[in-house]
C-alpha cells in the first residue's frame, strides 16, 4: 500500500486524508494461480490495485487465446472499457501466480468523486495510464518488428521473462513460441 500512498501524495498532489478515505472503501480479493479475476461476458464493476502477484489479460476466439496485457505488483488492473461503459467485457483476466488485489467498486469510486472532485485526479491518472499503455502497444504492432516489440516489453516490464512464461510473452508479442525462442537467440548472438 506504500506505493498507493506515494501515488496519492506525490504524483497526484492529494493529502493522506484522501488516501485514507479511498483506502477505507477498498476490499481485498485473493486469487490462486489460474483463477480468473474477471471473465468474458461479465461487467467489470471494479478498479483493482495489484498488491502482489502477476496477472494476464487475454481475449479468445476460434483460434485460441491472445494476451493483450500483463499486470504486476503496484499496477492498476481492470477490464477498463467494461468498467467505463458498464457493458460486458470481451476479455478475461487470469492470475498467473497467487495474487492479492485491493479493489474499489465502480459505485464507490463514483461516490467518492461526487463527494470530493479531488478524486477526479485519481480517475484521470488511471485513464491516462490505460490510454498510454494501449497506444504504445498499438503503435508497436504497426511500427516495430517482433524483436523491437520484445525489447519494448522488456523495458516496460523489467524481469518479465522470470515472471511470465515464454508462451504468454509470445502471445502478447503476436508470435509463435518457437519464433520467440529464435528472436531471443538472435538478440543474444548479436549483443
Automatic annotation (TrEMBL):
Signal peptide: none annotated. It comes from the Bacteria. One of its GO terms (molecular function) is kinase activity. InterPro entries: cNMP-bd_dom, cNMP-bd_dom_sf, RmlC-like_jellyroll. The keyword Magnesium does not apply. The keyword Cell cycle does not apply. Residues 29-116 form the Cyclic nucleotide-binding domain. Keywords: Kinase, Transferase. This is cAMP-binding domain of CRP or a regulatory subunit of cAMP-dependent protein kinases. It comes from Mucilaginibacter pineti.
Amino acid at each position: 500500500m506504500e506505493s498507493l500512498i506515494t501515488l496519492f501524495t506525490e504524483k497526484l498532489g492529494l493529502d493522506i486524508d484522501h488516501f485514507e478515505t479511498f483506502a477505507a472503501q477498498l476490499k481485498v480479493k485473493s486469487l490462486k494461480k489460474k483463477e480468473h479475476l474477471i471473465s468474458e461476458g461479465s461487467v467489470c464493476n471494479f478498479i483493482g490495485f495489484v498488491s502482489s502477484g502477476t496477472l494476464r489479460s487475454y481475449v479468445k476466439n476460434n483460434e485460441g487465446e491472445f494476451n493483450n496485457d500483463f499486470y504486476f505488483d503496484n499496477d492498476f488492473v481492470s477490464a477498463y472499457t467494461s468498467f467505463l461503459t458498464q457493458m460486458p467485457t470481451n476479455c478475461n483476466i487470469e492470475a498467473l501466480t497467487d495474487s492479492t488485489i485491493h479493489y474499489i467498486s465502480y459505485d464507490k469510486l463514483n461516490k467518492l468523486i461526487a463527494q470530493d472532485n479531488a478524486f477526479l485526479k485519481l480517475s484521470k491518472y488511471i485513464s491516462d495510464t490505460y490510454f498510454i499503455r494501449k497506444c504504445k502497444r498499438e503503435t508497436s504492432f504497426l511500427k516495430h518488428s517482433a524483436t523491437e516489440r520484445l525489447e519494448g516489453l522488456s523495458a516496460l516490464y523489467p524481469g518479465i521473462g522470470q515472471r511470465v512464461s515464454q508462451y504468454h510473452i509470445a502471445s502478447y508479442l503476436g508470435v509463435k513460441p518457437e519464433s520467440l525462442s529464435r528472436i531471443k537467440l538472435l538478440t543474444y548472438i548479436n549483443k
